[in-house]
Amino acid sequence: MQVVYFSQELQARAPGVLGCLFNEDTKGWVSLIDVAAAIERRENVTVRPATETEMKRAEAVAALFDIGVQLGQKVEALLDQETPEVVRGTITAIREAMESVEAGPADLLDRKA
Question: Is 22 exposed, middle or buried (0-12, 13-18, 19+ CB in 10 A)?
Answer without folding.
Answer: buried
